[in-house]
Input
Amino acid sequence: MRTPISFFLLLSGMLFTVGTVGVLIRKNALIIFMSIELQLNAVNLALVTFSRQNGNLTGQVLTFFSMVVAAAEVVVGLAIIVSLYRKRRSIDVDDARMLRW
Amino acid sequence: MADTVVFWIAAPISVASAIAVVLARRAVHAALFLIANLFTLAVLFLVLGSEFLFVVQIIVYAGAIMVLFLFVIMLLGVDQEVSLREQLQGQRLVAALLGLGLLAEVVVAVRLGVGLHRTPLPDFAAVNKGGNVQALAHVLFNQYFLPFEVTSVLLIVAAIGAMLHGRRRMDEEETIDREQAVL
Output
C-alpha cells in the first residue's frame, strides 16, 4: 500500500468534525442522529487504519463491536424519537423540554 | 498505486457527502447522502485490507440501519420541516469555531503521532493469512469471546427497549384521538 497511513487518519478526523458540527447546529432530531452515525463511522475508519498500521486485527474486532453497539443505539434512539413525536407532534429537539423544569 | 487512486476517489466523495448530510434541508436527502458516505467508507475498509468489515459495513449500515432510518422518516412524515430559527444567540458561530478547533487538533495530533511522511507499513498479508474472515474469526472467538457473548445480551436489551418505547399505550391512544377530534 503506497497511500500514507496518516491520510486515512486525517480523513477520519474530518468526518468526525463534520459529524460534530452537525450535532451542534442541527435541530431535526433525525439529522442529529445521522450526524452521530457519521461520528461513529469516522471512529471506525480510524480503528481500521490503526489495525492496518500495527499489523494486527484488534482494531478490526473493535470496529465489529462498535458496529453492534451502533445498531443497538440506532434501534433504541429511533424508538425514542418515535415516542417523542407521538407526545409532541414534532421532531424539533427544541420542543423536547419536558424534563427541563 | 491502485490504493492511492481509490483513496483519492473515495475520500472527496465521503467528505462531500458528510457535509451534505449536515446541510441537507430534508431528512430523506440527508439519509441518502449518509448512504453514499457509508459506501465510500466501505471502499476504504477494503483498501485497508479488511474484506469482512467491507461487507458488514454495506449489509449492516447501508442495509439494515439506513432502512430503519428511512422507515422512521416515512413513519413520521417526509414533510416534517423543522424551523431553522435558532433559539440560542450565536450558537451556530460557536459550533463552527469549535469544529475548526477540533479539526486543527486532530491534524496536529496526527502530525505528531504518525507523521505525514510515508512510514513503512507491516505486511498485512501475513496477518490475513488464510483470508481476512478466517483470521478475524480466529481472533474474535479466542481472544474476545466473552465480549462477543456480552454483545448478544446488549442486542436483546436493545430489542426489548425499542419495543417498550415504540409501544402505544391505551391511554395515550385516547389522548391522540381526542387531539385529532379537536383539530
